[in-house]
Amino acid sequence: xxxxxxxxxxxxxxxxxxxxxxxxxxxxxxxxxxxxxxxxxxxxxxxxxxxxxxxxxxxxxxxxxxxxxxxxxxxxxxxxxxxxxxxxxxxxxxxxxxxxxxxxxxxxxxxxxxxxxxxxxxxxxxxxxxxxxxxxxxxxxxxxxxxxxxxxxxxxx
Length: 157
Known about the structure:
This protein is mostly helical. It has 3 domains: 3-51; 56-99, Orthogonal Bundle (Arc Repressor Mutant, subunit A); 102-147. The chain has helices at 3-16, 24-33, 38-51, 56-69, 75-85, 89-99, 102-114, 124-133, 138-147. Helix 2 runs antiparallel to helix 3, helix 5 (75-85) packs antiparallel against helix 6 (89-99) and helix 8 packs across helix 9. The chain is elongated, with a radius of gyration of 21 Å. It starts with a helix and ends in a 10-residue tail after the last helix.
């Protein structure tokens, strides 16, 4: 491992954190993609982990909070996004369980549907499908439709 490669790898890695937090997997993939040798990549990742710049748990917590504040997703879709970012399955499940209660999921599903324009008739099955695609459970999706007076069984609003 030469000093020039190490310096370049650190520069790439630190620049990655300027915009947002990254997972260990994201940093590793970016460094390897930029042609940084695997042994240099692992050295830089160990340093970033030791300094606290790479923390998959904190990444998961921040990502979940950010998504729920902006345009909420259900726990299934959030889990998928966390896994795709490289968060360990067990860690993703722990962080989602710490945040999501059945009541919160129902509240978020209602909030998604309540953003729709009023005075319009909606196909209940499509609304139910939309919530399921956003990662909400069937229970939460049915609750949201019922709470907003949408009949999801026959498709009439």
